[in-house]
Amino acid sequence: MAGQSWGRSFAARSLTRRRLLAGAGVGAAALAAACKIKSGGSSGTSAPQGSGSAAAKPKSGGTLNYAGGVLGSFDIQGRTFDPHIQTQSGARSYTLFYDRLLAYDLVSWQVQPSLAQKWEQPSQTEYLFHLVPNVKWQNKPPVNGRLMTTDDVLWSLERARTDDPKFSSRSLLQSVDKIEAPDSSTIRITTKVPDAGTLNKLSTDNLAVLSKETFEKYPKMSGADAAVGTGPFIMKSEEDNVGANYVRNPDYWIPGEPYLDAFRTVNFPDAQTAWGAFLANQIDVMVLNGPTAKDYIAKQGAGFTAPWGADDTIGNFLYPNTKIKPLDDARVTRALRLLIDHDEWVNVYAGDQNGKGGIGGVFPPVLAAWDLTEQEYRTHLEWKTPKDDAVKEAMSLLTAAGYGKDKPLKFTHVANDNPGGQQGTQLLQAQWKKLSQGAVDVDIKLLSQNEIDASRATRSFQYGQFGTSAGPSEPDIWLSAVYHSGASQNFMGLSDSKLDDMIDKQRTIFDDKQRKAAIRDIVLYLIDNGPSTIGATLFYLHAVQPRVQAYQPETHYLNGRDFSWVWLQQ
Questions:
Q1: Count helices and strands in the chain by DSSP H and E runs
Q2: At what angle are helices 271-279 and 290-300 packed, to 10 degrees?
Q3: Same structural domain for residues 188 and 333?
Q4: Is 371 helix (H, G, I), strand (E, B) or coil?
Q5: CA atoms in the 13 A half-sphere facing the CB of 380
Q6: Segments forming the whole domain that contains residue 395
Q7: Is 103 inside any structural domain?
Q8: Are residues 225 and 341 in the same domain?
Q9: Does the model's pTM come out above 0.85?
């Protein structure tokens, strides 16, 4: 199994404190006792795709070709290799060459060791992380294979919480009070208040440990020379919208890994072209769209169960910039939400882009256990069918705001210039125009990924359909990073003191039953008062060649960590 061979390198681990509390529903007395328990992660239990037995001995060698770029990775989409200013999905493929203090299992989402081989929690607000000894930086300038130190960890985490709008990572550490190194192998993190999501937040992909000297030498952090970490693969070359080449890191700190000699991401203009390359055995792994997913499932034969991954991102998060007219009017933003047909988003957008989806609301589908059910959403006006009552209410709100057929509401709708962005903007434009009978008239502007990043960071858009990724399956990561006032990914400018108080309170609750009740109240409040919505939630399916062993299904685009344990049947 993918995670199991790695897990044996860190044997004799117990339940994490978070999992212990979740499973036991402990009270105050048990909470105090649980704080003394040393913790570590545990491996997931999903059958790997590809041929062969899960117990087969891994073999070293070979090159794996991944359909990346606009189709499935961010390493060749023109982004900086600075993970601290990326969303989680943007930094996920960077785990090919970066590591972080903690990680998470790709299937169970449980927190796992990484650069911290074990941890303990002496109190509700104090965490001690014990680092893996003798971890080396990749043998590239300017670090040239030196040992990683606690100073590197301290510099990285302090930088990640920089109070600058471009740092998407800063909300992950907003509860942190102090980050210290008591000795040369230990990191102590003290939080201001008890925070149920602390360990999950530290496992998020964009909280990578970086070297200060690399940023000093490459301030723009672009190109293969700037991609220097402690991870399993060394980037040798990279060309935006073309491809990137990686080789095995011979000094990787997990003995024997990675098994692959090389890894390559290749850009394709669309899924159909990549599918042709997959059928010709030129590509080993690719994310599928609706039509290619149908073909792939059909080719697997009877008895095949498609391992759909519940997305941990929001591919079509729809939100206004509430700080810019005319979208600073709550009547307008409410009307725009009511004029969205979620069923059409599921059938047309999700069906074509991914092959599977569900109606969207507040959270990505990986957080379904913390969200309302589809049946519950459908009791609210925005999701009711038919749309007659929602349209009537929307038109009343637009009229009150001064808009109608003779004076239509006009603004620009921005999205990514990839196929999903193009289809989503056209679908939303058509829905608004049809259901409002012309009272809403929007223009479309498509941007490249790096232009999207700049537009959001500077809040220079009016209305956006953006991919948003905050972190693993911990609800407070989303609430604190996306919906809280001033949060690092609150690009819509939502500011609501009552909502902030609700978010702040729920993160201090360690009993899952009580916390779920508090989060339910937040979801209901956002349904009535929030300016944003999700067109449709998405599920992902990847095509995997039979020779690929120990692959754990990815929930979105390329997860670089997956390929530290993947091997090829030669």
A1: 19, 22
A2: 20
A3: no
A4: coil
A5: 22
A6: 314-539
A7: yes
A8: no
A9: yes
Read out DSSP for 141-157?
TTTTTPBP-HHHHHHHH
Residue 174 DSSP class: T
CATH number at residue 521: 3.10.105.10
Residue 563 exposure: Cα atoms within 13 Å on the Cβ side: 36
Digit-coded pLDDT (tens) for 430-481: 999 999 999 999 999 999 988 988 898 889 999 999 989 898 889 999 999 9
Residues 86, 211: one domain? yes
Task: Print the SS3 string covering 379-396.
Answer: CCHHHCCCCHHHHHHHHH
Q: Return the structure tokens found at 340.
A: 């969205």
For helices 388-400 and 330-338, what crossing angle results, to 10°?
Answer: 160
Q: Which amino acid is at 86?
A: Q
Tokens of 209: 């440990």
Identify whether 273 is part of a domain.
Answer: no
Number of domains composing the chain:
2
CB 549 within 8 A of CB 56: yes
Q: Can you spell out the DSSP letters for 299-315?
A: HH-TT----PEEPSSEE
Q: Is the dihedral of CA 23, 28, 33, 38 positive or negative?
A: positive
Helix (H, G, I), strand (E, B) or coil at 66: strand
Residue 428 CA, chain-centre distance (Å), reads 24
Residue 473 lies in a domain: yes
| Sign of the alpha-carbon torsion through 492, 83, 196, 20 | positive
Burial class for 496, CB neighbours closer than 10 Å (0-12, 13-18, 19+) = middle
For residue 69 the two structure tokens come to: 């770029």
pLDDT in tens, 490-531: 999 999 999 999 999 999 999 999 999 999 999 999 999 999
